[in-house]
Amino acid sequence: MGKVLIIGAGGVGTVVAHKVAQNADVFTDIMIASRTKEKCDKIVAEIGNPQIKTAKVDADNVAELVALFNDFKPEMVINVALPYQDLTIMEACLQAGVNYLDTANYEPKDVAHFEYSWQWAYHERFKQAGLTAILGCGFDPGVSGIYTAYAAKHYFDEIHYLDIVDCNAGNHHKAFATNFNPEINIREITQNGRYYENGKWVTTEPLEIHKDLTYPNIGPKDSYLLYHEELESLVKNFPTIKRARFWMTFGQEYLTHLRVIQNIGMARIDEVDYNGVKIVPLQFLKAVLPNPQDLGENYEGETSIGCRIRGLKDGKERTYYVYNNCSHQEAYKETGMQGVSYTTGVPAMIGALMFFKGEWKRPGVNNVEEFNPDPFMEQLNKQGLPWHEVFDGDLEL
Ligand code: NDP
């Protein structure tokens, strides 16, 4: 008996719903709830399983969430709304006795700042309540942490250097579009870069450091150093790490658009007065940009995300590269969504599967790398995100 409530009916929520429905032996009772109920109903119609329930909920409102949880009585909530809702949903989970999983760490709306402290602060309360919270269970964060845990468990005595490399070599044939929620995406990319070295965090200008990295089946792509939230938990959970960095590819066309958007003030997240109405420019921009959920149909090419690791085994230095390539078209054929939503939604479903199978149950607030990676890695191969390994190759980093 696996009763699950999915919150959020965007690109990622759609993929989670498809994958949960495909694993009906584990997920016996499913509800999708979001701000706009019609979007949930549309997903159910596409899946073609009228047993899946839907509901309208404002996930900023704890009382509304608690009422919904007490009514449906899920064992676990998969939170794939926006990072702004993480704390209200966690609070409601505590009040109603529900386990929790998400794919992105909490961000306050008024400042683009990423850190786990707000969610880690819930650890004792989840532990006391006997409830499991699983943080950051998408691809990155998510699979990136599980790959690292798998490497640490099987191939290294000490991990010294970790580089997470994220390439989207797809083409959606739009002049400019983001692959997931534009507001969240642009906030992330326009931040200062940051990486960890010898016990300290080093800050860079936004997109200051970049280099060509070669991705399997894709070739060389200019890759930019960004701050990414899983670096914070990975250096804490693997203290032998001397340096941890995150790289993401961007095309010149994308960067030119981004520069213009910033220069003209459209990336601002503070309120401005427009004809007596308060608007946030970045939220307005989201309303006029292509909807990431509509990109799938004409999306060609693939993503390639992995971990490049250097460290010691039996006193000898070795390197290890583990990665997945995901085709946008294959993702679209299966779920109606492009590869970025797919690579996030599939791991979120697997995290919940791990919980319901009893593999990942640990009262408290946990990052994914704190659990046994083996059953998760096995499921990645079965659920559409197969991985590949390269031993002792040139990491380029
Ligand atoms: P979308 O914007 O497509 O979807 C978000 C959904 O949440 C929408 O259905 C939206 O409703 C709903 N929502 C927003 N606010 C509320 C609210 N207050 N109450 C109820 N529902 C609400 O985003 P994505 O699907 O692209 O992304 C979902 C999450 O996945 C994000 O947190 C994102 O950061 C994360 N992510 C993680 C990745 C990873 O690898 N770890 C990669 C990509 C994304 P409405 O439609 O009415 O606006």
From TrEMBL:
EC id: 1.5.1.7
Residue ranges annotated for the Saccharopine dehydrogenase-like C-terminal domain, each copy included: 138-385
Keyword line: Oxidoreductase
Top-level EC class as recorded in UniProt: oxidoreductase
GO molecular function, one term: saccharopine dehydrogenase (NAD+, L-lysine-forming) activity
Domain Saccharopine dehydrogenase NADP binding: 4-134
InterPro entries to which the protein is assigned, alphabetical: NAD(P)-bd_dom_sf (IPR036291), Sacchrp_dh-like_C (IPR032095), Sacchrp_dh_NADP-bd (IPR005097)
Protein name (database record): Saccharopine dehydrogenase (NAD+, L-lysine-forming)
